[in-house]
Amino acid sequence: MKRMASMGPRPGLAEVRDESSAADAADAADAADAMGAAGSRRLYLPAVLILAVVLILLVLITRSTFRNLDRDRVQALSFLHQQGREILAVLDASMAAMAEGGALSLKRAAAPLIGAAGADAVAFAGILDEGGRFLFHTDPARVGDTWRRGAGGFDLDAAHPGFPDDAESGGAVYEMARPLPVPLEGRSGLLLVLGLRMVNFEAARHADFHHAILMAAIVGVLGAGNLFFIFVILRYHIIRGRLARSEAARRRGERLAAVGALAAGVAHEVRNPLSSIRGFAGVLRHRLADRPEEREYAAIMVREIDRINRVVTSLLDLARPRPFRPAPVSVGDLVDHVLGLLAADAREKGVRVERRVAEGLDRVMLDSDGMTHVLLNLALNALQSVGKGGWVEMAAGATEGGLQETGPVLAIRVTDDGPGIPAGDRERIFDPFFTGRASGTGLGLAICQSIVEAHGGRIRLESPPRGRLTGCAFEARVPLRWG
To answer: The domain spanning residue 156 has which CATH number?
Structure first.
């Protein structure tokens, strides 16, 4: 009794009200964090809309540029074609007028061609023989060359455009050919060829192209700025989430510290009388060997006292800081040890246990005792949730961290094909004293979470797991550090 009295004053009603107020404040802070996160997500909407508009503008500018270029090309070719027909008609009339007795000499035929080549729009003029070679060309160096379109293979009554490089003009040339109107020195079947410069067309096309590049650059800068804005929002959201999780962890730590202070006193207050009561119950159980009904009552007392003692022990494990002693550990050996502890229970229930551990995880820095506790607790929960003939798998491997992690992580996953966890319980599954089993204390998963967080990681639930319709999966993810 003196020992009990020396423990000091117990928490009164005012302290309980203070703790309730703190919990209400924490809930309000959680709500504020959720509202802030929702507000930051709303920032994505205008950014995404701006990006969509930028993409649409890029598509429209591209289409408009190509349409303008194509329209300009068609108009330029039509204009050049009409201009070439008019010049050819003039040359036809000139040669017909100069023909004497229905024949024309090459020297006389060259005169109007040379005159036509003096115009700014005309690049060259020439006469082709039956084999497609130039009998005459306004550039003497090209006499005897073969016209690249050949002689024949096309309708001589129509104009035939081409776009060869013209060395003299330095640009594209629109070429036309038509039959010579009169025989030349007794030779018929000759062609009159005319080349028109496309300098204006090329200049207009280059201007349109440069304008399109300028517009695309402006829109691209807007798009890049918008992408940067989205990146800033994303980083803001990630940092805000990390701060919120840190704040939640801090508040949780404060609550656990308060629970720890309370649990330490409760443990001393409860464990001593429990030990005495359990001892008396054990004596009664032995002395009532000839009275089965009373003996059963005494056995029930012993079992319930043991259960209370387990609750107190779990509460202390949750509240007091657990020493974190990382050392190089083989993940495969750790998993094998846990599965060895489960082997007898699995055989008794007829549950198939599978192991899947990646290679190369031989020296990973872990608290061996702590992770053994975590994996054993998760595996026992899985074993208890499946029925006879069920299935439990423990898998481990290295993977890249997601948005909530930096660097590679070690992921250890315990999956079962049981009924899973109801949707209404998933948010509270890691809360202390919350349990879905009548015999559970509700502290196992909370302790697992604190151990994983001591490793700098997190534990998450999937129910049902990806790709399955039923079952449950708990995954512990901790930073992958090598010993």
So the answer is: 3.30.450.20
In sequence order, the β-bridge partners of residue 195 are 124, 175
- In this predicted structure, the answer to whether residue 134 has a pLDDT above a threshold of 50 is yes
| Bridge partner residues of 122 (DSSP) | 196
Phi then psi for residue 404, to 5 deg, are: -95, 5
* Closest-CA residue to 453 (of 372, 370, 380, 376): 370
- Decide: 450 and 474 in contact? Cβ < 8 Å: no
Question: Residue 432: exposed, middle, or buried by beta-carbon count in 10 A (0-12, 13-18, 19+)?
Answer: buried
Dist CA 146 CA 138 (whole Å): 15
The amino acid sitting at 419 is P
| 399: CATH | 3.30.565.10
Domain boundary pick from 197, 219, 235 = 197
* Count of the separate structural domains present in the chain: 2
Q: Which domain holds residue 88?
A: 56-197
Q: Inform me whether the pLDDT recorded for 460 exceeds 80.
A: yes
What integer pLDDT is reported at residue 211 of this predicted model? 73
Confidence of residue 359 (pLDDT cuts 50, 70, 90): very high
Chain mean pLDDT for the chain: 77
At 374 the pLDDT is 93
pLDDT in tens, 43-69: 667 767 777 777 787 777 777 777 776
pTM: 0.45
| Sheet with 458-462, side-by-side order of all strands | 352-357, 391-400, 408-416, 472-479, 458-462
CA angle 34, 37, 43 (to 5 degrees): 150
405: left (phi over 0), alpha (psi -120 to 50) or beta: beta
